[in-house]
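Lay summary. Proteins are chains of building blocks that fold into shapes, and those shapes determine what they do. In this project we predict the shape from the chain. Here is one chain we studied, written as its sequence of building blocks.
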Amino acid sequence: MVKGRPYFHVVQVCLVSHKDKVLLLKHPDKTYWVFPGGHLEGGEQPLQGIQREIEEETGLKVKNLQLKRTDSYQHLSDNFLGMIYEAEADSDKVKLSHEHTDFAWITEKELDQYEVSYEGFKRDIEEFFAKNSI
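And here is the predicted shape, written in a compact code that computers can read:
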């Protein structure tokens, strides 16, 4: 890193839906739930990276993948750029990787039963349900 220049770690997550439910993954070392996602690997394009992470963590293939928003934050002494996507899963048959201990397909009414890792993710889920309600 060049001194005095901003440096960001790129982290990507995806709100994955199937029909009227949203997928959450249980973080293994914490009490909270997260979206599928992770860090970009060297030379990897963002869309390739998030598709790889979703498939590695859940075994799911997704369609209609689109960037919903970006967010920047600092954790300890590191700067992060978060890219938050939204996509539809091809099925609800999750093959959980070793990176998580459980998964849940939740409905709008079940959201308050799950502690999500970041308040922004809760807003993303609420917005998803609001725009997809019948």
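What the prediction tells us: The longest helix spans residues 119-132.
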